[in-house]
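so my prof wants the structure for this chain in the tokens format not the other one, which i didnt know existed until like an hour ago. anyway here's the sequence
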Amino acid sequence: MNLLAFIEEFPTEESCKHHFKLQREKEGVIYKKCKSKSHYWLASKCQWECKSCNFRTTLKSGSIMEGSKVAIRTWYLVMAFMTFSKKTISASEIQRQLDHPKYDTIWRLMHKIREAMGKRDGLYQLQGEIEFDEGYFEIATSKKVKLK
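here's what i got, hopefully its the right format
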């Protein structure tokens, strides 16, 4: 997805909230209080309510956005800028692009996102037969033989 497609798909805060709600429901919302997965959506409050204990949970609760006052669309935009290029982007550049008043806020968002991305990578392990193209590897021997 490029920047134009992103802006087209997520033009408003409401579109980002709707997308995030669908993603949370796909993964499953689990309540902190009773660990139940049974719930219904309260559109007027923008929260889920547990069918078992009537505990309410917000859209951001249980995610990296929990406790953040930053809009969900800002989170989405920061994630987009961080992933649109193979090269890195600085917090000050994202702050400038979003016309955000505080550098510290953008810096913290970026670090939370990086931490979440790092944890996500740990869930996937390569298995079976793996093929590499034109790589040089050192094997763990005392002779350090280079392999092609």
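also thought this was worth mentioning. The chain has five helices and five strands.
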